[in-house]
Automatic annotation (TrEMBL):
Pfam families: Abhydrolase_6. It comes from Pedobacter xixiisoli. InterPro entries: AB_hydrolase_1, AB_hydrolase_fold, AB_hydrolase_sf. It comes from the Bacteria. This is Pimeloyl-ACP methyl ester carboxylesterase. Residues 22-241 form the AB hydrolase-1 domain.
Length: 254
C-alpha cells in the first residue's frame, strides 16, 4: 500500500481524505492492504481511517473481542471522532458490533461484510498442519470464491503469521473469544442503519449468517455480492464499493 502508517500515542493507523469519518476495521488474519481499494475509492469524499487492531500487542489474558472494542473506544476518543461510520470485515465486523452495542452514541451507521458474531467456520480451532505451506495455501484459498485471489504474497503473509508461536496463540485465543461472544440476543439494541454487504459464496460466514443478521438487526439492508467469498472488498471491490457508496450517500449526504 502506498500509505504511511502513522504512529501516535501508542496507536497505529492509516488516514486519508477529509470530511465525514469512515473507520475501516480489518479481520483476524487481515492486513491494512485488505482495504486498499476502499481507501482509494473513498478518500476523495470522506475522511477514511484504518486502525491497526492490536491483536499481537494486548495482554494475552485479556485478549478478546471486548478488549478490541475497548481499544477502538480509546482510539476514537484519541482522534476526537464522533458519529463515525464503522465498516468491518470478519472479526472487524464483530468488534464493530460489540462497540456499537456499548457506545451507539459514537456510531452513525455500521457496515458489516463477512462479519463474525453469530457463526463462522474459520480454521477450526487449531492449525494442525501449520508447518505445511500447501495446507495454509488451501486454507487461504478457502476464504475466496476464486482461489486466484489468494496471491502468493497473501499466502506467504499468513504462513509466516501462523508459524510464529506467539502470534498463533493469540489468533486462536481471539478466534475462541469470537465464538463464545455470540451477539444474537444483543443485536436488537442496534437501531442505527446497518448495511450488510455479503459474498454469496462465503464459506466462512455463509449466506444464512447474513440472513440472520438481517432478521435480527432492526434497521438493516442486505446486499449480495455474486462470485464472492468472505472478503468482498478484496475479491469484488467495484461491487463492494458501489454498495458502500450508495449507503454512505443515503446516510451522510442526505
Amino acid at each position: 500500500m502506498n500509505y504511511e502508517v502513522i504512529e501516535q500515542e501508542g496507536f497505529k493507523f492509516i488516514e486519508a481524505g477529509e470530511g465525514e469519518p469512515i473507520v475501516l476495521l480489518h479481520g483476524l488474519m487481515g492486513e491494512l492492504s485488505n482495504w486498499e481499494y476502499a481507501l482509494n475509492e473513498f478518500k476523495g469524499k470522506y475522511r477514511v481511517i484504518v486502525p491497526i487492531l492490536p491483536i499481537y500487542d494486548l495482554p494475552i489474558l485479556t485478549l478478546g473481542v471486548k478488549s478490541l472494542s475497548k481499544y477502538l473506544h480509546r482510539f476514537l476518543k484519541f482522534k476526537k471522532l464522533n458519529q463515525v461510520v464503522l465498516v468491518g470485515n470478519s472479526l472487524g465486523g464483530h468488534v464493530g458490533l460489540v462497540f456499537t452495542v456499548a457506545h451507539q452514541e459514537f456510531v452513525k451507521a455500521l457496515v458489516l461484510t463477512g462479519s463474525s458474531g453469530l457463526y463462522e467456520n474459520a480454521f477450526g480451532g487449531s492449525f494442525p498442519k501449520r508447518e505445511s505451506y500447501d495446507f495454509i495455501k488451501e486454507k487461504v484459498e478457502f476464504t475466496f470464491f476464486d482461489p486466484a485471489t489468494a496471491t502468493k504474497e497473501l499466502v506467504d503473509e499468513v504462513f509466516a503469521t501462523v508459524n510464529d508461536r506467539s502470534k498463533v496463540i493469540r489468533i486462536l485465543a481471539l478466534a475462541k473469544s469470537a465464538i463464545r461472544h455470540n451477539m444474537a440476543k444483543e443485536l436488537k439494541k442496534i437501531t442505527i442503519p446497518v448495511s450488510l454487504i455479503w459474498g454469496r459464496q462465503d464459506k466462512i460466514t455463509p449466506p444464512d449468517v447474513a440472513k440472520e443478521f438481517h432478521e435480527l438487526l432492526p434497521n438493516s439492508e442486505l446486499n449480495w455480492v455474486d462470485n464472492c467469498g468472505h472478503a468482498p472488498m478484496m475479491e469484488q471491490p467495484e461491487v463492494f464499493n458501489n454498495y458502500l457508496d450508495k449507503f454512505l450517500d443515503r446516510i451522510l449526504l442526505k
